[in-house]
Amino acid sequence: MRYLERIVEPGARVLDIGCGAGTLLAHVKPSVGVGVDTDPAEIATARAAHPGLRFSTLPAERVHELGDTFDYVIISQVLGEIYDVRALFRSVQAVCHERTRVIIVQYSRLWQPALKVAEWLGIKRRVDEHNWLPADEIEHQLGMAGFEPIQTTPLTIAPLPFPLVSNFVNRFIAHLPFVRQLCLSNVTVARSKEAAARAATAQPSLSIIVPARNEAGNIQPLLDRIPEMAPRQEVIFIEGHSKDATWEAIQQAVDEYDGPFSLCAMRQPGTGKGDAVRAAFAEASGDMLMILDADISVPPEELPVFYEMLSGGYGEFINGSRLVYLMDKKAMRFLNLLANKLFGWLFTFLINQRCRDTLCGTKVLMRRDYERIAANRSYFGDFDPFGDFDLLLGAARLQLKIVDVPVHYKARTYGNTNISRFRHGLMLLRMCGVAARKLKFV
């Protein structure tokens, strides 16, 4: 329950398939909660215990008859009782919109003998099982039914309550490589590709945020190279206490511009790239928000791929990756390259999604998702001066589908990097510690 409580946002619309007495559904605090089960006695108990929720006696394969959509669909420890799992998932498609998350909790096949013994001893409720699906088979069946798995997380390696020991082992040891394969349960989170495709018909408007500090020589060349991607597109330059003429260059570029974009010039109120991005996001008017660093190390000509991936529903948080293609020899120092590879590996482990490059400045997401990230920012704390971890961690907590897009990384032609390898490296390690505590070892 604790893990699902972290995934499901309070006040959401939640469907619980195989709800039993309704304990789990009530625990996640939905604004609209609907539970279905085939046991009339359990449904009667649920209705008496939780009068503010709705419960129905209905087979899981017929949830499409509910005629409604939900933000979260929970299928907890019932797949083994389902005769046709694909039929269940196809029925679930009818109650999904493009942002619905399907959460499946299922016992690991490795624990099948122990669970049978527990049923025989009366420790566990006896069920009539038709199948016993491993995590990879669940992901395969989801794919056949038009869903896309986002992540699978193993949970609980010490199910019996030994004081202090069980909590420590389940919280820390269970998530380690090789050990995780021994866990009792797997939690798979998926999204509907069909619903995402249906919602990806219109071309969203676009706001490109360009944070700039000591980048006077890059402003006009950058603006000249930004391609037209959306029917309505704005570029917001936000200057960050530069020591050169960056602000003057921005003002001149905006004043003299005669092109298809709407331009805006801002000066950030605080310090750090993260503060600049958040201030510009607050002023942006586009449906889609895109970040592009002013150093032109990522060619602006490659931005249409990011726009297409997000508007086409291929992902929900599009993250640039500089570590795939060969980069210019002077684009990144050797120690920086090693550190970026390390943080990419560490972050992939922490969020259970592929994220090869955490610090690439090019990131794209929809405004509605950013607003959800901002609303939940207090969960991690306002500790990230760069903004990259703030957005990535927020996206991971909301179970957004993160997609890496390889970019070509070019050497600067003007100015110097604003990153301090050692001071900022230690800061990033601290942020990884926060991510581990808040996302992984919970």
Short description:
This protein has 442 residues and is an alpha/beta fold. The chain contains 16 helices and 14 strands.
What would you note in describing this structure?
The structure is a single chain. The chain is of the alpha/beta class and 442 residues long. The protein folds into two domains: 2-199, Vaccinia Virus protein VP39 (Rossmann fold), CATH 3.40.50.150; 206-440, Spore Coat Polysaccharide Biosynthesis Protein SpsA, Chain A (Alpha-Beta Complex), CATH 3.90.550. 36% of the residues lie in helices and 20% in strands. The protein is built from 16 helices and 14 strands. It has helices spanning 2-7, 23-27, 40-49, 85-93, 112-121, 135-144, 165-171, 193-199, 219-225, 246-256, 273-283, 303-311, 334-351, 367-375, 388-397, 421-440; strands at residues 13-17, 32-37, 54-57, 70-76, 96-107, 147-155, 185-192, 206-212, 233-239, 262-267, 288-291, 317-321, 363-366, 402-406. Strands 3-2-1-4-5-7-6 form a seven-stranded mixed β-sheet, with helices on both faces. A seven-stranded mixed β-sheet has the order 10-9-8-11-13-12-14, sandwiched between helices. Helix 3 (40-49) links the parallel strand 2 (32-37) and strand 3 (54-57). The longest helix has 20 residues, at 421-440. The model has no long low-confidence stretch (mean pLDDT 89).
Q: How large a portion of the residues is in β-strands, by DSSP E?
A: 15-25%
**Total number of β-strand segments?**
14
CATH topology of the largest domain: Spore Coat Polysaccharide Biosynthesis Protein SpsA, Chain A
Following the backbone from N to C, one meets helices and strands in this order, namely HEHEHEEHEHHEHEHEHEHEHEHEHEHHEH
Shape: elongated
Strand arrangement across the biggest beta sheet? 3-2-1-4-5-7-6
Distance between the termini: 12 Å
CATH architecture assignment of the largest domain? Alpha-Beta Complex
